[in-house]
Design goal:
N-(1-d-carboxylethyl)-l-norvaline Dehydrogenase, domain 2, four-stranded mixed sheet, Single alpha-helices involved in coiled-coils or other helix-helix interfaces, phosphogluconate dehydrogenase (decarboxylating) activity, EC 1.1.1.44, about 500 residues, three-stranded antiparallel sheet, Rossmann fold, oxidoreductase
Amino acid sequence: MGKNLALNIADNHYRVAAFDLDADKVQGVVRQEELERIKYLNNVVDARIDGCNNISEMLSKLEKPRVVLLSVPAGAPVDGVCQSLIEAGIEADDIVIDTGNSLWTDTVEREKRYASDFLFFSCAVSGGEVGARFGPSLMPSGSLTAWNRIEPIWQAIAAKVDAKTGLPIERFEPANPVKEGEPCTTYIGPAGSGHYVKMVHNGIEYADMQLICEAYQLLRDGLGYTPAQVGEVFERWNAGSLNSYLMEISADVLQQADPLTGAPLVDMILDKAGQKGTGLWTAVSSLQIGCPAPTIAEAVYARAVSTQKVQRQQLSQQLSGPSHTPVAKFADGDEQVFIAQLENALYCAKVCSYAQGFQLMAMQAKEQGWKLDFAEIAKIWRAGCIIRATFLQSITQAYQQNAELENLLMAETFAKALSEKQNDWRFAVSAAVMNGIPAPCISSALAYYDSYRCERLPASLLQGQRDFFGAHTFERTDKPAGDKYHLNWSSEDRTLDKL
């Protein structure tokens, strides 16, 4: 990531001084810049990246006031580098930018901690290594003074989209960066807000990936499709409303043969999924603030279940499932009908996962006093980042039409689409249940949809239970909001008290 960001910045006509504790990495980026300069620029410009042996040398080569980007793992390494910069003589008006996946609360504390030493700024980066090289989605937050100074650089190196269509403008050519279109970066807000937005982005990413995986398993185990056949289905879906980077790469992965055995590569990959923590942070944050985000949480749980490989192997021999009934029979024998139904189900579940993410950002923004522009956030996710999708253009338009939208499901576009597609969604979920195929994210998204369209939930009984065993009180439907009541359950006449 650090190497590719450096090359991206150099491509946009900025000089870079690079340092890493691993000298081979420094020489690697210097050598790559040289090769690209010779090949693509005919070696007519001076070296754009200077390799440095230590932090002091790096600082000496930067023009004051300096801009220093950190591309290190979250946590203690960030503070370690900051301390080294202080010891090397960084100055109060220099900017130090954390581009890693730091926990947002750590970012808030760091801005305070280093205020007298330098301007600590943060910028979450999405897009992986290729995005970093040719145009990532950038989510900066912190000091406006710092942002005003780095904004031209960020706009230059960010991914670009066509303003009318919302589609990415991509060119993967060294020394020939995309300059046309809207840059996928915007000032998010005060310290920590950018990393929080990126954290939620990653939570949505967890859900999006798991939803695609569940659709794959329904086609694989339900219809008996080969991985390559599922890949072909995904290719068709990618040409429609489900167009996205994740759908595109999923189709590619499923059609890839294993170089060693010739078998489908996906069958040779161990079914144990890793995670680096941002999805977990999103789920925890939703619980802490009381924002329902079941699809995101289920995606985290799905990865956790996948790691229990030995238990799953044992229990697969002990626990029985339904007698096998091909999914196609639920669609009157027409597997193409089921494929179309599953496509609609995936779309609906995807809308709900985004709705959960945006609602979580809105609730945290209110809690922290941030003023987040959700139309702008949706816009900068249209290219460069992992969840980039045509779908985000509709989200952008929804928030442009109503900036105060409390839940994405309230947008007419999505309310209408989910209402029309819900029967297909329900069929897909029932097919999964009847066939014993786990679909925790697709089904939890449906429960989320049904919960929000339900005017009266059984929480009234739950409050009765709580009052019975713990005297937790309840409000009444026929009395002013906020008035608390308790029934004396243990008394003979069960009198009602207003508290």
